[in-house]
Amino acid sequence: MSPITTTAAIKRNEERLERPFDPHEQVRRRAYELYEQRGKEDGHDLEDWLQAESEVVQPKTNAATSA
Predict the structure, then answer these.
(1) What's the DSSP call for residue 42?
(2) Distance from C-alpha of 25 to C-alpha of 49, rounded to nearest angstrom
């Protein structure tokens, strides 16, 4: 990794630590990742959103209930 890439990664991590967990934002980002992985093919927005929601929100819920 180049020093610029490393610096950018550190900055992103610091920004994440400063912000409280925002499940809507995390789901939105993950859904967009799924859209990109599909080759930006339209028509799967609800499917991507629901999958992202299950990946982002449910693990946090399960961890909270098992603690």
Answers:
(1) S
(2) 11
List, in order, residues 6 or more apart from 39 with CB less than 8 Å away.
none
pLDDT for 40-58, tens place per residue? Answer: 999 999 999 999 999 998 7
Q: Which pTM value belongs to this model?
A: 0.59
Cα-based distances in Å from 11 to 6, 8, 37, 54: 9, 5, 25, 28
Size of the chain, expressed as the number of residues it contains: 67
Both structure tokens of 49:
């959103």
- Count Cβ atoms within 10 A of the Cβ of residue 5 and give its class: 0-12 exposed, 13-18 middle, 19 or more buried: exposed
Of the CA atoms within 13 Å of residue 25, those in its CB half-sphere come to 5
Q: Which whole-number Å values give the CA distances from 44 to 11, 37, 53, in the listed order?
A: 32, 12, 14
